[in-house]
Design brief:
The chain is 16% helix and 52% strand. It has 316 residues and is an alpha+beta fold. It folds into four domains: 1-33; 37-134, RNA Polymerase Alpha Subunit, Chain A, domain 2 (Beta Complex), CATH 2.170.120; 136-227, YbbR-like domain (RNA Polymerase Alpha Subunit, Chain A, domain 2); 228-315, RNA Polymerase Alpha Subunit, Chain A, domain 2. Strands 10, 14, 16, 17, 18, 19, 20, 21 and 22 form a nine-stranded mixed beta sheet that branches. Strands 2, 5, 6, 8, 11, 12 and 15 form a seven-stranded mixed beta sheet that branches. Strand 5 and strand 6 (99-102) form a beta hairpin.
Length: 316
């Protein structure tokens, strides 16, 4: 026999060996899959077909531990399935005003159908699922936004920020809705600002219960930004509450410094400010009285006095 024939026979024997090895492996696997096994499944629980005006606000425990008997084929198939027990609202037993219960042992066939290929359900734990179903409620609440701003030198905000929408409608279980007075947007930090602000802010839904829904999860935050300049006026000091006492003050005028949007600078006059010296605030042991700015334009910022107190003399 030539060397080539020997090699051909050896290759033939190898192919036969591999074929029988594969065949026996497949038969062994099929034999194992055809057997029954005990398997414990943790089934998540939900409630379906809840009336439109109600909502599940609490469900405990959130899953059932189900011990089953099933074939290896079914065991393999279930590895690739998302198993969940959907309890129909009509199957619940009412135990209180908003309280319901579900007794798993009373529904073994329904639970078995949830898991493919189950031949027998041998145990279910726990014995009871407690469910709270509340009436839906809704109301409008204000939105609160926290935007930390740092402006470039010489720039600042004009007016107040505008939120759109400034109110949102929240819907959910009445027990939760009654406790909510406002919803908050996710905080934002801005730096080196020199132009108008317009940005989208997300409602902080993580701060709300998962059953509470919001009519809008995004709001627009707007703030006008303008360039400011500094101005000053010499303002007469107004002395009040002297009654019948003859009081003299020094000096009779003080300088007021302020910043104002450039486009409004020309419209600001000394008459827009008022500085008051209230004699009721004097201390007999001291000959100075603090000053108060009692009137100033709405758009003026960073107002300060060159002199915060003035001297007084009581003339007998």
């Amino acid at each position: 026999m030539s060397i080539f024939k020997k090699i051909t026979l050896r290759r033939s024997h190898v192919r036969e060996f591999l074929f029988f090895l594969l065949l026996t492996t497949i038969l062994a696997i099929l034999s194992k899959l055809s057997k029954d096994y005990t398997k414990i499944y943790n089934l998540p629980v939900t409630v379906v077909n809840v009336p439109i005006d109600r909502v599940v606000s609490n469900l405990a425990p959130g899953e059932l531990e189900v011990t089953t008997r099933l074939s290896g084929f079914a065991l393999l198939s279930n590895q690739f399935s998302d198993l969940e027990l959907a309890i129909n609202f009509n199957q619940l037993e009412k135990t209180g005003n908003t309280q319901y219960q579900y007794i798993p042992e009373g529904h073994p066939l329904e639970i078995a159908k949830t898991i493919s290929g189950v031949s027998e359900v041998t145990a279910i734990s726990p014995k009871q699922v407690s469910i709270q179903i509340d009436s839906l409620a809704s109301k409008e609440v204000p939105v609160k936004a926290t935007v930390t701003t740092d402006y470039k030198t010489g720039y600042g905000p004009k007016g107040i920020p505008v939120l759109d929408p400034s109110m949102v409608r929240i819907v959910g279980p009445k027990a939760y809705i009654d406790t909510i007075t406002a919803v908050k947007a996710v905080p934002k930090d801005l730096t080196e600002i020199y132009e108008n602000i317009a940005l989208q802010l997300a409602i902080d839904s993580l701060a709300l219960h998962k059953e509470v829904k919001v009519s809008s999860y995004v709001i627009t935050y707007s703030q006008e930004v303008v360039k400011f300049t500094e101005g000053s006026f010499s303002i007469p000091v107004k002395l009040i509450n002297t009654k019948d006492t003859d009081v003299k003050i020094f000096p009779k005028t003080v300088d007021v410094y302020f910043t104002v949007p450039i486009d409004l600078y020309e419209s600001i006059t000394a008459n827009d400010f008022e500085v008051v010296c209230d004699f009721n605030k004097h201390n007999a042991q001291d000959d100075f009285i603090a000053l108060d700015i009692t009137k100033s334009p709405e758009d003026v910022k960073s107002i300060r006095l060159a002199t915060k107190q003035i001297k007084y003399i009581v003339i007998n």
